[in-house]
Amino acid sequence: QVQLVQSGAEGKKPGSSVKVSCKASGGTFSSYEVSWVRQAPGQGLEWMGGINPMFGTANYAQKFQDRLTITADASSNTVYMELSSLRSDDTAVFYCAREVLVHYPAFGIWGQGTMVTVSS
Amino acid sequence: EFVLTQSPGTLSLSPGERATLSCRASQSVTSNYLAWYQQKPGQAPRLLIYGASTRATGIPDRFSGSGSGTDFTLTISRLEPEDFAVYYCQQYSRPPVTFGGGTKVEIK
Asked: Which of A32, A107, B30, B96 is the most exposed place for a label (fewest CB within 10 A)?
């Protein structure tokens, strides 16, 4: 059973960047796309973008297009999310999530979440 | 962008009661590409239903999904203590993926 294991909590200054990792444990990503979902404190879920680790092709929500980079290292079964030009309202829990079926973006497996706090 | 509106915002019920949660889409959801998630405090969301009505692996049959077009429903037939949580709908009919604002099911 594949599990997604994310890197630990981060504290960042406004204007800096953060890079969060998501590693598949107990298996591989195979052909499944992996997405990143953001959740600000007390708020709902927001899809940021996704990538197919096998092909390395990423797609982004327009809101994050200019400052989000999602990459994958298939050899280590790891996907990365890098968000730049951080602002205080980027403070959130970031989740990686794998689709339940190939080419079917309902998210059946989730990482444990990574808290990113942006504060001066 | 596809907007999903969930109602009610909060549902106050007792264990054993039936819960009916609504998700309305701003446009028709093609191929019933709609999912439901449960989220408890401090935890990641858990997929309950996809394809509007297919239960995900390991989800009890007291959870059921229905609907088509723009109106979808998640029903919990008899609330168990562990079902009190926040529930989100999500569409993947048209990019970008979008989520509803959530319905909190709380103990009355």
From this structure: B30
